Amino acid sequence: MVKKNILDYSYEKLIEEFKKINLQKFRVDQVLDWIFKKHVFDFYEMTNLSKEMRKQLDDYFYIYIPEPVDIQRSKKDKTTKFLWKLEDGRTIESVLLFYPNRVSACISSQVGCALKCKFCSTGASGFERDLSTGEIIAQVLAIEKLENVNINNIVLMGMGEPLLNYDNVIKAIRNWNNKKMKNLGARHITISTAGIADKIEELADFELDIRLSISLHAVSNYQRDQIMPINSKYPIEQVLQAAKIYQQKTKNRVTIEYIAIKGFNDTEEDAIKLAEILKGLKVMVNIIPVNPNPAGFERPSKKFLTNFVKKLKENGIEATLRIEKGTDIDAACGQLKMRKKGINLK
Ligand code: SAH
What we know:
two-stranded parallel sheet; 20% strand; single chain; alpha/beta; 10-stranded mixed sheet
């Protein structure tokens, strides 16, 4: 019999699975407590179960945790980046970030990405496959165990487009939220999307109150088309309309990510236009100076960046210049994997 990865299951489904091997519901709770609270990933170490039960569980299930093949630690701010090897040998990455009030993990949802955004290293390497629910969840467990931390904030901002792996991502979020599993409040979980409009609308009806972040990066379709091919399928108006629906249904402020690229989208006019297209939407804009990337885009000067933020604010839009973390360890997505492959970025 092929063993099943226990991390792929919802709580309710696990109760059913346990029933099939004659284990009661409270045994599910015990096993989940070992996995999520104590970070024990071997059934034989679960000492409040009889030896017979441990064997039974080990015959039926396995607990899939990826192996680190590379770990980079920032000397500046403790940001740590992990490159994980999956069962099929493919690799993904996650980043651990420390803030004054939270310990955050940036998690991958796919191996590679199909969207081919020009500024993104993951896009440059192409799409390989979706991650399973278990593989998404396991990234957090692996970091917590290795680093001895309790992650209390999760952002799906690593490799991949989470809304193109919708079902597995939603299942992972439900499990993180479940009291018997990670028990993390949904408002501490963020999905970042390049703007899959129909899925944003679907997400608006999701029962959990998660946060949404949209990677806009441009103020017009003309501009966005040049850096994000997905814009031809979901143009700006459609993305912002979906964001509006999301915002009205959930009452949550949406975050807009805006990568500032020198000589491309960083002028005062761009800032004013951005404020204009966001009018009527309750948003927070994060301005992120572009990180090293395969297209060779450069960062605007500090003066341009602060002026951009100032103009947004003057035009009624809340905005911040994103605090940078881990710049000394290539914390932008896809970069660790690229370096491992021997591809050098500018
Ligand atoms: N596909 C999703 C989530 C993964 S990308 C999305 O597009 O949101 C996570 C974030 O990193 C996105 O906002 C993306 O635009 C940004 N990003 C990618 N490459 C970058 C770079 N070189 N510099 C700065 N941000 C980058």
